[in-house]
Amino acid sequence: MYTMAWLIIFIVLLVIEIITMGLTTIWFAGGALMALLMAFIGFGLPAQIGVFLVVSVALLILTRPVAVKYFNTERQKTNAESLIGQQAVVLEDVDTLRAAGLVEVNGQEWSAKTDEPNGFIPKDSIVSVEGIQGVKLIVKAKEV
Q: What interhelical angle do 26-41 and 2-20 show, nearest 10?
């Protein structure tokens, strides 16, 4: 009876992994496969659940770092992500208190702000892009 349940869980987890390709449910599918094998051999439900948990966690801990390193390597950064670390020119004063500021990076104009609560960077300054928050670039004045 439990063999069918484990088979269904295994298939559902595999389908989710195939659809998302996020390396999230594959580890638990491995655990479900081992629990299915335990059920097929005749072990009780507590042993099946124990094997499911141990195998799933072991696969997650031992193989996920390797899999993440070698899979999804062709993932392209989005246009916005590629701006982090680049230099920009301040077109309008960046004033965090007034929520104002405009910078140009790679020929594109972006709203900008600083991480400092009283941050102010004057026009024509060179800044580096530290991050992105919503549709605004987080910038920091370059050290001269």
A: 160
Side chain identity, residue 131: G
The whole-angstrom separation of Cα 1 and Cα 115 is 58
- Residue 31: both structure tokens together: 């655990």
Reference 114, options 100, 125, 134, 135; nearest CA is 100
All residue ranges of the chain with pLDDT < 70 are 72-80, 144
Longest dimension (CA), the chain: 75
Q: What does the radius of gyration of the chain's CA atoms come to, in whole angstroms? A: 25
Asked if residue 129 lies in contact with residue 85, where contact means CB atoms within 8 angstroms, the answer is yes
Which amino acid does the sequence have at 68? Answer: V
CA gap 119, 124 in Å, rounded: 16
pTM: 0.50
Q: What are phi and psi of 97, to 5 degrees?
A: -65, -40
